[in-house]
Structures are given as C-alpha cells and as structure tokens.
Design a protein that fits this description.
Number of strands: 2
Distance between the termini: 37 Å
Number of helices: 2
Shape: extended
Structural class: alpha+beta
Order of helices and strands: HHEE
Helix content: 25-40%
Number of domains: 1
Length: about 120
C-alpha cells in the first residue's frame, strides 16, 4: 500500500513578507541556519509570553498597570524550561497572588511544546 503524500506548502512571497524578512535578517544578524533557528526560537518565546499575558488579563479581568477590587493581582513571573521544535528554551509564566491562574497556551507541568503551532491562530 502506497504511503499518503503530505501536501507541499508553496511559499508565496509578497512585498510585506520581503520587508519582514529583511527586518528579521537585520534585527537578528542572521548569517547561518543556526541563526535562523535562534531567531525563530526567540520569536516563538515572545509570542507565547504575549499570549500568556493576554490570558492573565482575561483571568484577572483587567489589563496590566490597572487596578481592580478583585483582590487578585499579578505577582511576577516563574521561569519554565520547555522543549520546542526549535530546541530548548526558557519562558516566563505570569503568576497571580492567589495562584489560581492556569495558563492554557503552555499548561502547568507541560514541558514539550512542539505542537504549539496548532494552538496559535493568526
């Protein structure tokens, strides 16, 4: 029985994508494939952090730097080492005073995030 072929992703280059690529090449001083991997890891980490911040805003019911009468407040960050398809990285998970925040992007005790791209909807 023949194996089912995976569909091939066709890259469509637009002017906007070219500009983003040029900015990334300049920002990360990309010279090698390893530099690309490091840049992707950094971008993934930043995306995860922003998503967790949005989850914390939703959990607390107010945005960062605002006050609320809920009695629960942001309480710094906890560092967490995770493994992605781009390698191992350290992320900062926001904490709340009452320890009731349960992140969904990267769940508590989750170490492998190689399938995280399925959770990120652009």
């Amino acid at each position: 029985m023949a194996r089912e072929k995976k569909p091939v992703h066709k890259v469509q280059m637009t002017e906007g994508k070219r500009n983003i690529i040029h900015q990334l090449l300049k920002e990360y001083d990309i010279q090698s494939a390893e530099d690309i991997q490091d840049a992707l890891k950094d971008l993934l980490g930043g995306t995860i952090k922003e998503m967790m911040e949005a989850e914390m805003d939703d959990h607390l019911g107010y945005e960062k730097s605002q006050r609320s009468d809920s009695g629960d407040y942001r309480n710094g960050y906890k560092r967490k080492r995770v493994n992605s398809r781009y390698g191992s990285m350290e992320i900062e998970v926001p904490q709340d005073r009452k320890s009731t925040f349960e992140p969904q992007v990267v769940k508590k005790r989750q170490k492998d995030i190689s399938d995280i791209d399925q959770k990120i909807n652009f």
